Amino acid sequence: MAKNLRAADAAQLDLDGTGMRVAVVCGRFNDLITNRLLAGTEAGLQSLGVADDDVTVAWVPGAFELPMTAKAFADTGRFDAVIALGCVIRGETAHFDYVAGECAAGIMRAQLETGLPIVFGVLTTENLDQALARSGGDEDKGRESAEVAVEMVGLLRAIRA
Ligand code: INI
Predict the structure, then answer these.
(1) Which domain holds residue 120?
(2) pLDDT per residue over 59-71, tens digit each?
(3) Which residues of 52-65 are buried (b: 16+ CB within 10 A; e: fewer)?
(4) Which end of the chain is more exposed for a tag (fewer CB within 10 A), N or C?
(5) What total number of domains does the chain contain?
């Protein structure tokens, strides 16, 4: 009989963030959207039991700065997870692929190097309408990021125990 560390059905996950310390790095570029993402993340963390005092928020210029800042937080050893929030809109930049691609690659590298979950809460969209829809419209990438952080901290603890 296989031993399951986590439910296959996300709805059955009993997420508990009590006592978890979370750093949130938020890109200022497209701050109409990133403020909405941050609101979703903060509400999500609170609803999962993460204390307000255990959440640290830092703003950076844009998505390109997220990986280095997330890694700096992870390297302190003072956090259980880092959430990186940003918004890159294709129509508004000729270097969409560089900013979005390097951000994603940098975050992946930082989490593999540090062993700490770093959540990719970065919207990469074609236009502003899509970004609005995914930041508290039809979907809420901010709240989703809070859930991913708490889930991954719990799973990694179970694996490493
Ligand atoms: N940063 C973003 O977060 N989103 C964008 O859409 C964006 N555009 O359009 O260029 C963007 N650029 C800034 C970039 O993240 C860096 O802050 C800048 O290049 C300085 O390193």
Answers:
(1) 20-25+34-160
(2) 999 999 999 999 9
(3) eebbeeeebebbbb
(4) N
(5) 1
